[in-house]
What we know:
The complex is a heterodimer of chains A (223) and B (257). Chain A is built from 6 helices and no strands. Chain A has helices spanning 4-37, 40-71, 75-108, 118-139, 143-173, 178-210. The N and C termini of chain A lie far apart (46 Å). In chain A, helix 2 packs antiparallel against helix 3 (75-108). Helices cover 34% and strands 25% of the residues of chain B. The two termini of chain B are 30 Å apart. Chain B has helices at 46-52, 83-89, 104-114, 121-131, 135-138, 151-164, 181-194, 207-213, 236-241, 246-252; strands at residues 6-17, 20-26, 29-31, 35-39, 63-71, 74-75, 90-93, 169-173, 199-203, 216-221, 229-235. Chain B is globular and about 55 Å long. The mean pLDDT of chain B is 94. Chain B is an alpha/beta fold and 257 residues long. The A-B interface holds A 1-3, 6-7, 72-79, 210-211 and B 207-208, 211, 238, 240-243, 248-249, 252-257.
Amino acid sequence: MVRADFDKNLGELEAELMGLGEMVEKAIIKSMDALERRDLAVAYEVVAEDDLIDEKRFELEEKCIDLIATQQPLAIDLRTLLAVLHIAVELERMGDYAEGIGKICLIIGDDEPVEMPKQLSQMAEMGIAMLRRSLKSLMDRDTDLANDVWDSDDEVDALYDGVCRQIFLDMGQQPKTIEAATHFLWVAHDLERIADRATNIAERVIFVVTGRIGRYQPPQESK
Amino acid sequence: MQDQDFILQTRGLNVYYDTKRVITDVNLDVARNRITAIIGPSGCGKSTLLRCFNRMNDLIPTARVEGQVLFDGLDLYGHDVDPTEIRYLIGMVFQRPNPFPKSIFDNVAFGPRINGFHGDINELVERSIRRAALWDEVKDRLKASALSLSGGQQQRLCIARALAVEPRVILMDEPCSALDPIATLAIEELMRELSEDYSIIIVTHNMQQAARVSHYTAFLMVEETRAGFMVEFGESRQIFTNPEDERTEAYITGRFG
């Protein structure tokens, strides 16, 4: 097998991308945990640790650029490197949403507890599952699994609509909670965006495997 | 490639050297005024295939061609076809620049003269050298020996020499393999310009060059039981970003064998 060194580099790059994925997943879990338990120390950590995610993303980007410049990749190699570049950015943005939730947590503080809408945890769980599946679909080059990620996005969108309606309702009934409720709206928005970004990753997986670029189109059911 | 205008087409093309088959059942469509690259590992028959397009294989006594090579619908291997005439219409540029040991001017004038050209030879030579993007570099020393030029200039002179007999197709057999990177880019640039008026087929070992310069790419391979067969043909952008055949992918990503 020729190009063993290049293959090793590509393998390491993908492993590092998975590492970035784990960092982001942890950030999302921690931010929701901080919000639920009003743990400001954990929230601080999430905000601080986002710098590490940003650094890792730039590191990955640089490695991709080096490999493109020095190895002149074509075909599957080119598609893989372009996908890693793209996915690293998606993950970094997901990290920003987790940081955003951490900051909201710090703003709400711990003095006047208002209960967090339950659907938010559910949205976070689904978003994390989508993130995991999207990255697994990349590692396994599994387009079926990538397609599953889109299906889940519809459910997250439905949850988002539901939680927004609930929050608006609560605002009307308990004007005192309006400020906290507004913050929860932001959390819901962040979680919805996390799920969207997971679908973007899945889109890149389709690109790696098939070379098709652009928005995902569900396979036509034959009638 | 549907509804497209093809200048050259091979149909069931097989080439033998003695009893050894070196090209196997190639059906290739060459688009008019486009650059078609032929790539593949050493010994896959790229150059042999290229040489079928202007009957250069006739010069090898043991070579035998089966099937058809159609030039605007005309079978190049038909009985009444004069191979010499074909080689004017379908010119060739070789791996190493091979100017005649004559002046720059005479190199370009040579073909038209023996062809019985009666027009303004000065004008034809200037036009051909200009077309080959060499005029500014040689206009003050047309009487100088062609061998005094650099490798890249010599190769452009060979292109000018091919253009002087007003071909329709230019075949290029690794035209840059003896040139430095800058001279290589100059030839590639020239090829893109020429492709507005000429159809070009290039054989190259340099995949990046095929990716840079060609509109279409054909990938040929050789196996123990089969020689010189075409694995895949398509638009170059597709071949180099998303080839359909895994053998093409293995070759262009450098993971062959």
